[in-house]
Amino acid sequence: xxxxxxxxxxxxxxxxxxxxxxxxxxxxxxxxxxxxxxxxxxxxxxxxxxxxxxxxxxxxxxxxxxxxxxxxxxxxxxxxxxxxxxxxxxxxxxxxxxxxxxxxxxxxxxxxxxxxxxxxxxxxxxxxxxxxxxxxxxxxxxxxxxxxxxxxxxxxxxxxxxxxxxxxxxxxxxxxxxxxxxxxxxxxxxxxxxxxxxxxxxxxxxxxxxxxxxxxxxxxxxxxxxxxxxxxxxxxxxxxxxxxxxxxxxxxxxxxxxxxxxxxxxxxxxxxxxxxxxxxxxxxxxxxxxxxxxxxxxxxxxxxxxxxxxxxxxxxxxxxxxxxxxxxxxxxxxxxxxxxxxxxxxxxxxxxxxxxxxxxxxxxxxxxxxxxxxxxxxxxxxxxxxxxxxxxxxxxxxxxxxxxxxxxxxxxxxxxxxxxxxxxxxxxxxxxxxxxxxxxxxxxxxxxxxxxxxxxxxxxxxxxxxxxxxxxxxxxxxxxxxxxxxxxxxxxxxxxxxxxxxxxxxxxxxxxxxxxxxxxxxxxxxxxxxxxxxxxxxxxxxxxxxxxxxxxx
Length: 553
Known about the structure:
It is built from 22 helices and ten strands.
Protein backbone atom coordinates (compact mmCIF):
# COMPACT_ATOMS: atom_id res chain seq x y z
CA UNK A 1 0.00 0.00 0.00
CA UNK A 2 2.95 2.29 0.65
CA UNK A 3 4.00 3.21 -2.86
CA UNK A 4 0.58 3.89 -4.27
CA UNK A 5 -1.24 6.09 -1.76
CA UNK A 6 1.44 7.92 0.15
CA UNK A 7 0.84 11.19 -1.71
CA UNK A 8 -2.94 10.94 -1.79
CA UNK A 9 -3.83 13.56 0.82
CA UNK A 10 -1.71 16.34 -0.63
CA UNK A 11 -2.72 15.50 -4.15
CA UNK A 12 -6.44 15.51 -3.50
CA UNK A 13 -6.13 18.97 -2.02
CA UNK A 14 -4.36 20.07 -5.19
CA UNK A 15 -6.93 18.28 -7.32
CA UNK A 16 -9.77 20.45 -6.11
CA UNK A 17 -8.11 23.69 -7.09
CA UNK A 18 -6.98 22.48 -10.52
CA UNK A 19 -10.31 21.51 -12.05
CA UNK A 20 -10.06 24.00 -14.93
CA UNK A 21 -7.17 22.08 -16.46
CA UNK A 22 -7.92 19.29 -18.92
CA UNK A 23 -4.97 17.31 -17.66
CA UNK A 24 -3.52 17.45 -14.17
CA UNK A 25 0.14 17.32 -13.25
CA UNK A 26 0.44 13.84 -11.76
CA UNK A 27 3.58 14.61 -9.76
CA UNK A 28 2.73 16.00 -6.31
CA UNK A 29 4.60 19.05 -5.13
CA UNK A 30 5.37 20.40 -1.68
CA UNK A 31 2.96 23.29 -2.26
CA UNK A 32 0.49 21.85 0.24
CA UNK A 33 1.81 19.85 3.16
CA UNK A 34 -0.33 17.35 5.02
CA UNK A 35 -0.35 19.66 8.02
CA UNK A 36 -1.54 22.61 5.95
CA UNK A 37 -4.20 20.54 4.21
CA UNK A 38 -5.63 19.65 7.63
CA UNK A 39 -5.06 22.96 9.35
CA UNK A 40 -8.50 24.48 8.88
CA UNK A 41 -12.07 23.50 8.26
CA UNK A 42 -11.98 25.09 4.81
CA UNK A 43 -8.85 23.19 3.84
CA UNK A 44 -10.41 19.90 4.91
CA UNK A 45 -13.47 20.79 2.83
CA UNK A 46 -11.12 20.95 -0.16
CA UNK A 47 -9.93 17.43 0.58
CA UNK A 48 -13.54 16.21 0.66
CA UNK A 49 -14.16 17.99 -2.66
CA UNK A 50 -11.11 16.20 -4.05
CA UNK A 51 -12.51 12.89 -2.89
CA UNK A 52 -15.75 13.68 -4.70
CA UNK A 53 -13.83 14.25 -7.90
CA UNK A 54 -11.67 11.17 -7.36
CA UNK A 55 -14.80 9.07 -7.74
CA UNK A 56 -14.83 9.71 -11.48
CA UNK A 57 -11.34 10.93 -12.39
CA UNK A 58 -8.93 8.77 -14.32
CA UNK A 59 -6.65 6.86 -12.01
CA UNK A 60 -3.46 8.70 -12.90
CA UNK A 61 -4.88 11.80 -11.21
CA UNK A 62 -5.57 9.87 -7.99
CA UNK A 63 -2.58 7.54 -7.80
CA UNK A 64 0.31 9.80 -8.86
CA UNK A 65 4.05 9.50 -8.38
CA UNK A 66 4.89 7.02 -11.13
CA UNK A 67 2.82 4.18 -9.69
CA UNK A 68 2.25 1.13 -11.84
CA UNK A 69 -1.47 1.62 -11.33
CA UNK A 70 -1.46 5.28 -12.36
CA UNK A 71 -3.11 4.40 -15.65
CA UNK A 72 -5.62 6.22 -17.82
CA UNK A 73 -7.62 3.09 -18.64
CA UNK A 74 -9.92 3.34 -15.63
CA UNK A 75 -11.93 6.39 -14.60
CA UNK A 76 -12.98 4.86 -11.30
CA UNK A 77 -16.80 4.74 -10.84
CA UNK A 78 -17.28 5.19 -14.57
CA UNK A 79 -15.82 1.68 -14.74
CA UNK A 80 -16.73 0.12 -11.38
CA UNK A 81 -20.48 0.91 -11.50
CA UNK A 82 -21.31 -0.90 -14.78
CA UNK A 83 -18.71 -3.60 -14.02
CA UNK A 84 -21.18 -5.25 -11.63
CA UNK A 85 -23.63 -5.90 -14.46
CA UNK A 86 -20.91 -6.70 -16.98
CA UNK A 87 -19.36 -9.40 -14.77
CA UNK A 88 -22.66 -10.94 -13.74
CA UNK A 89 -23.98 -11.31 -17.29
CA UNK A 90 -26.73 -8.70 -17.13
CA UNK A 91 -25.11 -6.20 -19.48
CA UNK A 92 -24.54 -8.52 -22.45
CA UNK A 93 -22.09 -7.95 -25.31
CA UNK A 94 -23.51 -8.60 -28.75
CA UNK A 95 -20.21 -8.48 -30.65
CA UNK A 96 -16.47 -8.93 -30.19
CA UNK A 97 -15.17 -5.52 -29.04
CA UNK A 98 -12.66 -5.18 -26.21
CA UNK A 99 -11.91 -1.52 -25.58
CA UNK A 100 -10.62 -1.02 -22.00
CA UNK A 101 -10.74 -4.79 -21.53
CA UNK A 102 -14.54 -4.68 -21.26
CA UNK A 103 -14.98 -7.98 -23.09
CA UNK A 104 -12.17 -9.53 -21.04
CA UNK A 105 -14.07 -8.56 -17.90
CA UNK A 106 -17.23 -10.24 -19.19
CA UNK A 107 -15.21 -13.39 -19.90
CA UNK A 108 -13.90 -13.42 -16.28
CA UNK A 109 -10.31 -13.08 -17.45
CA UNK A 110 -9.47 -9.89 -15.57
CA UNK A 111 -10.58 -9.92 -11.91
CA UNK A 112 -9.23 -13.47 -11.70
CA UNK A 113 -5.69 -12.29 -12.56
CA UNK A 114 -3.59 -10.73 -9.78
CA UNK A 115 -1.69 -8.44 -12.17
CA UNK A 116 -4.71 -7.02 -14.00
CA UNK A 117 -5.44 -3.30 -13.97
CA UNK A 118 -8.90 -4.01 -12.62
CA UNK A 119 -7.77 -5.65 -9.38
CA UNK A 120 -4.95 -3.13 -8.93
CA UNK A 121 -6.78 0.12 -9.56
CA UNK A 122 -9.90 -0.80 -7.60
CA UNK A 123 -7.76 -1.80 -4.59
CA UNK A 124 -5.59 1.31 -4.56
CA UNK A 125 -8.38 3.76 -5.28
CA UNK A 126 -10.36 2.45 -2.33
CA UNK A 127 -7.36 2.62 -0.02
CA UNK A 128 -6.67 6.13 -1.26
CA UNK A 129 -10.17 7.12 -0.11
CA UNK A 130 -9.50 5.44 3.23
CA UNK A 131 -6.17 7.24 3.71
CA UNK A 132 -7.74 10.62 3.09
CA UNK A 133 -10.72 9.83 5.31
CA UNK A 134 -8.34 8.71 8.06
CA UNK A 135 -6.48 11.99 7.87
CA UNK A 136 -9.64 14.03 8.40
CA UNK A 137 -11.11 11.74 11.07
CA UNK A 138 -7.91 11.61 13.10
CA UNK A 139 -7.32 15.35 12.77
CA UNK A 140 -10.81 16.21 14.01
CA UNK A 141 -10.44 13.68 16.84
CA UNK A 142 -7.59 15.80 18.22
CA UNK A 143 -10.34 18.09 19.50
CA UNK A 144 -8.76 21.49 18.95
CA UNK A 145 -11.05 22.66 16.13
CA UNK A 146 -14.34 24.49 16.75
CA UNK A 147 -17.27 22.08 16.67
CA UNK A 148 -19.41 23.64 13.91
CA UNK A 149 -22.16 22.21 11.68
CA UNK A 150 -19.78 22.60 8.75
CA UNK A 151 -17.07 20.56 10.51
CA UNK A 152 -19.67 17.89 11.30
CA UNK A 153 -20.49 17.75 7.59
CA UNK A 154 -16.84 17.21 6.74
CA UNK A 155 -16.16 14.49 9.29
CA UNK A 156 -19.50 12.80 8.56
CA UNK A 157 -18.52 12.54 4.90
CA UNK A 158 -15.10 11.19 5.84
CA UNK A 159 -16.66 8.40 7.92
CA UNK A 160 -19.18 7.59 5.20
CA UNK A 161 -16.48 7.51 2.51
CA UNK A 162 -14.36 5.20 4.64
CA UNK A 163 -17.29 2.85 5.16
CA UNK A 164 -18.05 2.91 1.43
CA UNK A 165 -14.44 2.08 0.57
CA UNK A 166 -14.15 -0.78 3.06
CA UNK A 167 -17.48 -2.21 1.91
CA UNK A 168 -16.31 -2.13 -1.71
CA UNK A 169 -13.05 -3.84 -0.77
CA UNK A 170 -14.51 -6.60 1.39
CA UNK A 171 -17.27 -7.33 -1.13
CA UNK A 172 -14.80 -7.78 -3.97
CA UNK A 173 -11.67 -9.21 -2.36
CA UNK A 174 -13.30 -11.53 0.19
CA UNK A 175 -15.93 -14.25 0.27
CA UNK A 176 -19.53 -13.14 0.59
CA UNK A 177 -20.70 -12.75 4.17
CA UNK A 178 -23.80 -14.94 3.83
CA UNK A 179 -22.07 -17.79 1.98
CA UNK A 180 -18.91 -17.94 4.06
CA UNK A 181 -17.69 -17.93 7.64
CA UNK A 182 -17.19 -14.23 8.39
CA UNK A 183 -15.43 -14.76 11.71
CA UNK A 184 -12.58 -16.65 10.04
CA UNK A 185 -12.67 -15.82 6.32
CA UNK A 186 -9.84 -13.40 5.40
CA UNK A 187 -11.09 -9.93 4.53
CA UNK A 188 -8.87 -6.96 3.72
CA UNK A 189 -6.32 -4.96 5.74
CA UNK A 190 -7.66 -2.23 8.00
CA UNK A 191 -5.59 0.95 7.73
CA UNK A 192 -5.62 3.46 10.58
CA UNK A 193 -2.59 5.59 9.76
CA UNK A 194 -2.95 9.34 9.32
CA UNK A 195 0.24 10.10 7.41
CA UNK A 196 2.50 8.41 4.88
CA UNK A 197 3.50 5.65 4.45
CA UNK A 198 0.01 4.40 5.39
CA UNK A 199 1.18 0.89 6.24
CA UNK A 200 -1.46 -1.61 7.30
CA UNK A 201 -1.81 -4.70 9.40
CA UNK A 202 -2.47 -8.15 7.94
CA UNK A 203 -5.80 -9.10 6.40
CA UNK A 204 -8.54 -8.64 8.97
CA UNK A 205 -11.40 -11.12 8.99
CA UNK A 206 -14.55 -10.39 7.02
CA UNK A 207 -16.36 -9.86 10.32
CA UNK A 208 -13.78 -7.37 11.55
CA UNK A 209 -14.05 -5.37 8.34
CA UNK A 210 -17.85 -5.27 8.57
CA UNK A 211 -17.56 -4.24 12.22
CA UNK A 212 -15.41 -1.32 11.05
CA UNK A 213 -17.97 -0.42 8.38
CA UNK A 214 -20.80 -0.53 10.91
CA UNK A 215 -18.90 1.68 13.37
CA UNK A 216 -18.03 4.18 10.65
CA UNK A 217 -21.62 4.46 9.47
CA UNK A 218 -22.84 4.95 13.03
CA UNK A 219 -20.29 7.74 13.45
CA UNK A 220 -21.25 9.25 10.09
CA UNK A 221 -24.95 9.34 11.04
CA UNK A 222 -24.18 10.85 14.44
CA UNK A 223 -22.14 13.62 12.84
CA UNK A 224 -24.67 14.27 10.08
CA UNK A 225 -27.43 14.71 12.68
CA UNK A 226 -25.69 17.91 13.80
CA UNK A 227 -24.32 18.87 10.38
CA UNK A 228 -25.19 21.66 8.00
CA UNK A 229 -27.84 20.57 5.49
CA UNK A 230 -26.65 19.47 2.08
CA UNK A 231 -27.16 22.21 -0.53
CA UNK A 232 -29.67 21.48 -3.26
CA UNK A 233 -30.69 22.66 -6.69
CA UNK A 234 -27.45 22.02 -8.57
CA UNK A 235 -26.29 18.76 -10.16
CA UNK A 236 -23.05 18.86 -8.17
CA UNK A 237 -24.82 18.98 -4.80
CA UNK A 238 -25.58 15.27 -4.64
CA UNK A 239 -21.88 14.45 -4.84
CA UNK A 240 -21.86 15.43 -1.17
CA UNK A 241 -22.56 12.51 1.16
CA UNK A 242 -25.21 13.30 3.76
CA UNK A 243 -27.27 11.42 6.35
CA UNK A 244 -29.44 9.87 3.62
CA UNK A 245 -26.37 8.42 1.91
CA UNK A 246 -25.10 7.07 5.24
CA UNK A 247 -28.45 5.39 5.91
CA UNK A 248 -28.42 3.99 2.36
CA UNK A 249 -24.93 2.55 2.86
CA UNK A 250 -26.07 1.11 6.19
CA UNK A 251 -29.02 -0.54 4.41
CA UNK A 252 -26.64 -2.09 1.85
CA UNK A 253 -24.31 -3.29 4.60
CA UNK A 254 -27.15 -4.83 6.60
CA UNK A 255 -28.59 -6.54 3.51
CA UNK A 256 -25.19 -8.06 2.70
CA UNK A 257 -24.78 -9.40 6.25
CA UNK A 258 -28.32 -10.65 6.83
CA UNK A 259 -29.23 -8.04 9.42
CA UNK A 260 -32.70 -7.82 7.92
CA UNK A 261 -34.30 -5.56 10.51
CA UNK A 262 -31.54 -2.95 10.24
CA UNK A 263 -31.64 -3.19 6.45
CA UNK A 264 -35.36 -2.39 6.37
CA UNK A 265 -35.13 0.44 8.91
CA UNK A 266 -32.13 2.05 7.21
CA UNK A 267 -33.67 1.81 3.75
CA UNK A 268 -36.78 3.64 4.94
CA UNK A 269 -34.67 6.35 6.56
CA UNK A 270 -32.53 6.80 3.43
CA UNK A 271 -35.40 7.30 0.99
CA UNK A 272 -37.82 9.39 3.04
CA UNK A 273 -37.10 12.68 1.26
CA UNK A 274 -36.97 11.28 -2.30
CA UNK A 275 -40.02 10.60 -4.45
CA UNK A 276 -40.16 7.61 -6.78
CA UNK A 277 -39.56 8.80 -10.32
CA UNK A 278 -42.47 8.86 -12.73
CA UNK A 279 -42.42 7.56 -16.29
CA UNK A 280 -40.88 10.63 -17.92
CA UNK A 281 -37.99 10.72 -15.47
CA UNK A 282 -37.40 6.96 -15.65
CA UNK A 283 -37.16 7.21 -19.42
CA UNK A 284 -34.91 10.30 -19.39
CA UNK A 285 -31.64 8.35 -19.67
CA UNK A 286 -30.31 8.08 -16.08
CA UNK A 287 -27.74 10.73 -16.92
CA UNK A 288 -28.27 13.38 -14.24
CA UNK A 289 -28.07 13.55 -10.47
CA UNK A 290 -30.96 16.04 -10.65
CA UNK A 291 -33.44 13.20 -11.14
CA UNK A 292 -35.73 13.38 -8.10
CA UNK A 293 -35.01 10.00 -6.56
CA UNK A 294 -31.22 10.22 -6.80
CA UNK A 295 -29.76 10.15 -3.29
CA UNK A 296 -26.09 10.17 -4.27
CA UNK A 297 -24.14 10.56 -7.50
CA UNK A 298 -21.27 12.30 -9.24
CA UNK A 299 -21.81 15.35 -11.41
CA UNK A 300 -19.09 14.90 -14.04
CA UNK A 301 -17.61 18.29 -14.88
CA UNK A 302 -17.15 19.04 -18.58
CA UNK A 303 -13.39 19.59 -18.29
CA UNK A 304 -12.81 16.08 -16.92
CA UNK A 305 -11.28 14.10 -19.78
CA UNK A 306 -13.04 10.81 -19.17
CA UNK A 307 -14.85 10.73 -22.51
CA UNK A 308 -13.77 7.28 -23.82
CA UNK A 309 -13.38 6.03 -20.23
CA UNK A 310 -16.91 6.89 -19.17
CA UNK A 311 -19.84 4.86 -17.86
CA UNK A 312 -21.82 5.74 -20.97
CA UNK A 313 -19.02 4.62 -23.28
CA UNK A 314 -19.05 1.22 -21.59
CA UNK A 315 -22.77 0.75 -21.02
CA UNK A 316 -24.88 3.10 -23.17
CA UNK A 317 -25.89 2.41 -26.77
CA UNK A 318 -25.96 6.09 -27.72
CA UNK A 319 -22.33 7.01 -27.00
CA UNK A 320 -20.29 7.74 -30.13
CA UNK A 321 -17.41 5.34 -29.60
CA UNK A 322 -16.30 2.10 -31.21
CA UNK A 323 -17.10 0.03 -28.11
CA UNK A 324 -20.73 1.08 -28.58
CA UNK A 325 -21.05 1.37 -32.36
CA UNK A 326 -19.57 -2.09 -32.94
CA UNK A 327 -21.02 -3.79 -29.88
CA UNK A 328 -24.55 -2.76 -28.88
CA UNK A 329 -25.20 -3.85 -25.28
CA UNK A 330 -28.25 -6.03 -24.88
CA UNK A 331 -30.25 -7.21 -21.89
CA UNK A 332 -31.02 -10.79 -20.95
CA UNK A 333 -34.03 -11.60 -23.11
CA UNK A 334 -35.43 -13.91 -20.40
CA UNK A 335 -35.68 -10.90 -18.07
CA UNK A 336 -37.13 -8.53 -20.67
CA UNK A 337 -39.69 -11.02 -21.98
CA UNK A 338 -40.97 -11.42 -18.41
CA UNK A 339 -41.79 -7.71 -18.07
CA UNK A 340 -45.55 -7.16 -18.52
CA UNK A 341 -46.57 -4.95 -21.44
CA UNK A 342 -48.29 -2.71 -18.86
CA UNK A 343 -44.89 -1.90 -17.30
CA UNK A 344 -43.36 1.16 -19.00
CA UNK A 345 -39.81 0.01 -18.22
CA UNK A 346 -40.16 -2.53 -21.03
CA UNK A 347 -40.17 0.36 -23.52
CA UNK A 348 -36.49 0.97 -22.83
CA UNK A 349 -35.48 -2.40 -24.29
CA UNK A 350 -35.81 -2.66 -28.07
CA UNK A 351 -36.87 -6.26 -28.43
CA UNK A 352 -37.46 -6.08 -32.19
CA UNK A 353 -34.50 -3.92 -33.18
CA UNK A 354 -33.00 -5.31 -36.42
CA UNK A 355 -29.67 -7.04 -36.13
CA UNK A 356 -27.69 -4.75 -38.43
CA UNK A 357 -24.24 -5.91 -37.30
CA UNK A 358 -22.51 -8.17 -39.81
CA UNK A 359 -20.00 -8.96 -37.05
CA UNK A 360 -22.62 -9.90 -34.47
CA UNK A 361 -21.44 -12.68 -32.18
CA UNK A 362 -24.56 -14.74 -32.83
CA UNK A 363 -23.86 -14.80 -36.58
CA UNK A 364 -27.32 -13.46 -37.40
CA UNK A 365 -26.38 -9.94 -38.48
CA UNK A 366 -27.63 -8.33 -41.66
CA UNK A 367 -30.80 -8.68 -43.71
CA UNK A 368 -29.64 -11.97 -45.21
CA UNK A 369 -29.81 -13.57 -41.75
CA UNK A 370 -33.00 -11.90 -40.58
CA UNK A 371 -35.53 -14.18 -38.91
CA UNK A 372 -37.82 -11.53 -37.41
CA UNK A 373 -41.24 -11.65 -39.14
CA UNK A 374 -41.68 -7.94 -38.32
CA UNK A 375 -39.54 -7.21 -41.40
CA UNK A 376 -40.83 -8.83 -44.57
CA UNK A 377 -38.55 -6.91 -46.90
CA UNK A 378 -35.04 -5.53 -46.81
CA UNK A 379 -36.51 -2.06 -47.24
CA UNK A 380 -38.55 -2.47 -44.05
CA UNK A 381 -35.48 -3.81 -42.24
CA UNK A 382 -33.35 -0.83 -43.29
CA UNK A 383 -36.12 1.68 -42.62
CA UNK A 384 -36.40 0.51 -39.03
CA UNK A 385 -32.66 0.90 -38.54
CA UNK A 386 -32.90 4.49 -39.78
CA UNK A 387 -35.98 5.18 -37.65
CA UNK A 388 -34.29 3.98 -34.46
CA UNK A 389 -31.30 6.22 -35.15
CA UNK A 390 -33.54 9.23 -35.59
CA UNK A 391 -35.54 8.49 -32.42
CA UNK A 392 -32.65 7.69 -30.10
CA UNK A 393 -29.97 9.96 -31.51
CA UNK A 394 -27.17 7.62 -32.41
CA UNK A 395 -25.29 7.91 -35.69
CA UNK A 396 -25.63 5.97 -38.92
CA UNK A 397 -22.44 4.11 -37.95
CA UNK A 398 -24.10 2.60 -34.86
CA UNK A 399 -25.22 -1.00 -35.16
CA UNK A 400 -28.53 -2.24 -33.79
CA UNK A 401 -29.42 -5.57 -32.21
CA UNK A 402 -32.52 -7.24 -30.77
CA UNK A 403 -32.98 -6.57 -27.03
CA UNK A 404 -30.58 -3.62 -27.08
CA UNK A 405 -31.36 -1.10 -24.37
CA UNK A 406 -31.94 2.64 -24.38
CA UNK A 407 -32.26 2.95 -20.61
CA UNK A 408 -28.84 4.59 -20.18
CA UNK A 409 -28.56 7.51 -22.57
CA UNK A 410 -26.56 10.69 -22.68
CA UNK A 411 -28.17 14.09 -22.48
CA UNK A 412 -26.64 14.61 -25.95
CA UNK A 413 -26.90 11.23 -27.70
CA UNK A 414 -24.43 10.51 -30.48
CA UNK A 415 -21.67 12.50 -28.78
CA UNK A 416 -18.76 11.64 -26.47
CA UNK A 417 -20.16 13.52 -23.46
CA UNK A 418 -19.64 11.47 -20.27
CA UNK A 419 -22.59 12.74 -18.15
CA UNK A 420 -23.30 12.04 -14.48
CA UNK A 421 -22.99 8.77 -12.56
CA UNK A 422 -25.78 7.69 -10.23
CA UNK A 423 -24.75 5.67 -7.17
CA UNK A 424 -27.91 5.47 -5.06
CA UNK A 425 -31.62 5.89 -5.76
CA UNK A 426 -34.78 5.68 -3.69
CA UNK A 427 -36.04 2.71 -5.72
CA UNK A 428 -33.12 0.64 -4.48
CA UNK A 429 -34.18 1.39 -0.92
CA UNK A 430 -37.74 0.14 -1.55
CA UNK A 431 -36.26 -3.06 -2.94
CA UNK A 432 -33.91 -3.46 0.04
CA UNK A 433 -36.78 -3.02 2.47
CA UNK A 434 -38.91 -5.54 0.57
CA UNK A 435 -36.13 -8.13 0.47
CA UNK A 436 -35.36 -7.68 4.16
CA UNK A 437 -39.00 -8.20 5.17
CA UNK A 438 -39.30 -11.20 2.86
CA UNK A 439 -36.19 -12.79 4.39
CA UNK A 440 -37.74 -12.31 7.84
CA UNK A 441 -40.83 -14.14 6.60
CA UNK A 442 -43.06 -11.08 6.85
CA UNK A 443 -44.81 -11.39 3.51
CA UNK A 444 -47.34 -8.62 4.13
CA UNK A 445 -44.68 -6.07 5.11
CA UNK A 446 -42.60 -7.03 2.07
CA UNK A 447 -45.63 -6.60 -0.20
CA UNK A 448 -46.33 -3.16 1.22
CA UNK A 449 -42.70 -2.12 0.78
CA UNK A 450 -42.79 -3.19 -2.86
CA UNK A 451 -46.26 -1.86 -3.67
CA UNK A 452 -45.38 1.85 -4.28
CA UNK A 453 -42.61 0.99 -6.71
CA UNK A 454 -44.54 -1.71 -8.56
CA UNK A 455 -47.70 0.36 -8.90
CA UNK A 456 -45.75 3.34 -10.25
CA UNK A 457 -43.99 1.27 -12.91
CA UNK A 458 -46.82 -1.09 -13.96
CA UNK A 459 -50.39 0.10 -14.45
CA UNK A 460 -51.73 -3.41 -13.80
CA UNK A 461 -49.47 -4.27 -10.88
CA UNK A 462 -50.88 -6.52 -8.15
CA UNK A 463 -48.34 -7.41 -5.46
CA UNK A 464 -50.82 -9.75 -3.76
CA UNK A 465 -50.16 -12.29 -6.52
CA UNK A 466 -46.96 -13.08 -4.65
CA UNK A 467 -48.39 -14.38 -1.41
CA UNK A 468 -45.70 -16.62 0.03
CA UNK A 469 -42.06 -16.11 0.85
CA UNK A 470 -40.66 -18.13 -2.04
CA UNK A 471 -42.72 -16.51 -4.80
CA UNK A 472 -42.23 -13.06 -3.29
CA UNK A 473 -38.45 -13.43 -3.16
CA UNK A 474 -38.38 -14.50 -6.80
CA UNK A 475 -40.48 -11.47 -7.66
CA UNK A 476 -38.17 -9.15 -5.69
CA UNK A 477 -35.22 -10.55 -7.62
CA UNK A 478 -37.09 -9.88 -10.86
CA UNK A 479 -37.92 -6.33 -9.78
CA UNK A 480 -34.28 -5.65 -8.85
CA UNK A 481 -33.21 -7.03 -12.22
CA UNK A 482 -35.53 -4.72 -14.15
CA UNK A 483 -35.41 -1.58 -11.99
CA UNK A 484 -31.66 -1.54 -11.37
CA UNK A 485 -30.54 -3.00 -14.71
CA UNK A 486 -27.23 -1.50 -15.83
CA UNK A 487 -26.64 0.27 -12.52
CA UNK A 488 -24.08 -2.21 -11.25
CA UNK A 489 -25.85 -4.28 -8.58
CA UNK A 490 -26.11 -7.73 -10.17
CA UNK A 491 -22.68 -9.08 -9.20
CA UNK A 492 -23.24 -8.49 -5.48
CA UNK A 493 -26.87 -9.62 -5.76
CA UNK A 494 -25.78 -12.99 -7.11
CA UNK A 495 -23.21 -13.38 -4.34
CA UNK A 496 -25.84 -12.58 -1.69
CA UNK A 497 -28.34 -14.99 -3.26
CA UNK A 498 -25.65 -17.58 -4.06
CA UNK A 499 -26.67 -17.81 -7.69
CA UNK A 500 -24.43 -18.57 -10.64
CA UNK A 501 -24.59 -17.47 -14.26
CA UNK A 502 -26.18 -19.64 -16.93
CA UNK A 503 -26.68 -17.95 -20.26
CA UNK A 504 -28.05 -21.20 -21.73
CA UNK A 505 -30.92 -21.91 -19.33
CA UNK A 506 -34.62 -21.36 -20.02
CA UNK A 507 -34.27 -20.50 -23.68
CA UNK A 508 -31.03 -18.60 -23.28
CA UNK A 509 -30.09 -15.04 -22.45
CA UNK A 510 -29.10 -14.05 -25.97
CA UNK A 511 -25.38 -14.14 -25.20
CA UNK A 512 -22.99 -15.97 -27.51
CA UNK A 513 -21.16 -18.95 -26.01
CA UNK A 514 -18.33 -18.38 -28.47
CA UNK A 515 -17.90 -14.83 -27.18
CA UNK A 516 -18.41 -15.53 -23.47
CA UNK A 517 -16.31 -18.71 -23.37
CA UNK A 518 -15.95 -20.08 -19.81
CA UNK A 519 -18.11 -17.25 -18.42
CA UNK A 520 -21.11 -18.52 -20.38
CA UNK A 521 -21.88 -20.78 -17.42
CA UNK A 522 -20.38 -19.90 -14.00
CA UNK A 523 -21.02 -21.95 -10.89
CA UNK A 524 -22.56 -20.25 -7.87
CA UNK A 525 -20.32 -18.26 -5.50
CA UNK A 526 -20.40 -20.76 -2.61
CA UNK A 527 -18.59 -23.34 -4.75
CA UNK A 528 -16.62 -21.14 -7.15
CA UNK A 529 -13.75 -19.04 -5.71
CA UNK A 530 -13.54 -16.96 -8.90
CA UNK A 531 -16.32 -14.72 -7.58
CA UNK A 532 -13.64 -13.24 -5.30
CA UNK A 533 -11.19 -10.77 -6.86
CA UNK A 534 -7.48 -11.54 -6.65
CA UNK A 535 -5.36 -9.42 -4.30
CA UNK A 536 -3.02 -7.28 -6.45
CA UNK A 537 0.40 -8.86 -6.77
CA UNK A 538 1.80 -5.36 -6.31
CA UNK A 539 0.32 -5.32 -2.81
CA UNK A 540 1.64 -8.75 -1.88
CA UNK A 541 5.11 -7.71 -3.04
CA UNK A 542 5.13 -4.33 -1.26
CA UNK A 543 3.23 -4.91 1.97
CA UNK A 544 5.38 -6.53 4.70
CA UNK A 545 2.23 -7.77 6.44
CA UNK A 546 1.05 -9.77 3.43
CA UNK A 547 2.62 -12.67 1.64
CA UNK A 548 1.94 -15.31 -1.03
CA UNK A 549 -0.31 -17.21 1.37
CA UNK A 550 -2.65 -14.23 1.54
CA UNK A 551 -3.63 -14.51 -2.11
CA UNK A 552 -7.22 -15.53 -2.75
CA UNK A 553 -7.57 -19.03 -4.22
